[in-house]
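Reader question, answered in our methods column.
A reader sent in the components of a multi-part assembly and asked whether the whole thing could be modeled at once rather than chain by chain. We filled in our standard form and ran it. Here is what they sent:
COMPLEX SIZE: three components
ENTRIES:
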Amino acid sequence: MPETTAEGPHALSIPAVNATALRRALLAWYRRHHRKLPWRPAPGVGNAAQVDPYHSLVSEAMLQQTQVATVLPYFQRFIEAFPTVRALADADEQRVLRMWQGLGYYRRARNLHAAAQRVVSEFDGEVPAEVPALLKLPGVGRYTAGAIASIAHGRPAPIVDGNVARVFARLFNLQDPVDRPDVQKQLWAIAEALVPARSPGDFNQALMELGALVCTPKSPTCLTCPLRYRCAGLAQGDPERLPVKRPKKKPKAVTHLVVAVRRNGRYLFEQRPATGLWSNMWQLPTWEGDDATHPACDAAAVVDDLVVGAWLAERFGITPGKLTPAHDFTHQTTHRTIRFVVLTANANNGRLRPNTGRWLKLDQLDEFPLPNPQRTAVNHLP
DNA sequence: AAATCGGGGTT
DNA sequence: AACCCAGATTT
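And here is the structure of the entire assembly that came back:
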């Protein structure tokens, strides 16, 4: 059983461990078993200068809630398109979104773009090294600031991500839900107490790497873990039950009625609003509604042509001809189960209302960021 | 404190 | 189908 220490009346209880031995075991494992990644320095003291802090900023933005394997091709293409922080700062936001297309959480791309501009305007083009300065950048929270400070600049800043939370929950047998604010506070206090003055970047990456390769959510390979003799969760017999998390809400069922309106070999497209889902991205004209109670179709997606025609006329000034079903599929996001009902129509008459949409040839779409399901809809047009 | 914001990999 | 992922921001 790990003992606990309390420093002062309001101090959090932090498991008492042999921090030196723990760091040594973890770093030795990391030197042997780490994956080589384009944004990662080779392990070793004084490795910080090997990383371009701009690369660190880009990779950490992409890695938020996204697995390493998914990020790899995006990172390569992104750095190729925007090799320096100034190149990114000078870029058009639509082009940044286009490079981010398919990666999800698109606010990250817009924040990263804005962060690059702030690095240029307020930090003379140098990604800051200290956590308080990094925290001023949009899209950079406590984790990302600590990651950049420690990995790219060698600062002894702590980090807690999903991997670290799982490793700590097992290592110290933390029974309370790790997504509860007070437990998060405890995890950060532990990380702060453990991060070493030398090689903090390697140490932080080693914690995450252990979580990704050994201390996995399901079927952790405890027999190969460098911390197996220090793990309270393993000593209790069942580390896989940790970490405990609070239950999540079920996604809401909605319908997106998509109308592909064609005229003279072009299709009508609209840009989504600057806030909310898929902000600032483009799509075929789409009418969103609750599943089963959509204003224009029933639960079986039997569409009321007159209602759809009236909607198109009111919104774009365009009157469609006969509507023809083209495709019907579902798209899953974290908070929604979206049924996409795609119809096609020819536009016989009407003038496009200003600032409501654009007529685009499909081969122009390379320049426009589209959500994945809208790409799917476009790909199924006749 | 809770909700929002994507898409894909794993099991 | 459920859970997770090198989280941040808004409400």
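What stands out: Chain A is about 40% helix and 15% strand. Strands of chain A lie at 4-5, 14-15, 252-263, 266-271, 282-283, 286-290, 319-320, 324-332, 336-349, 358-360.
Send us your own complexes using the same form.
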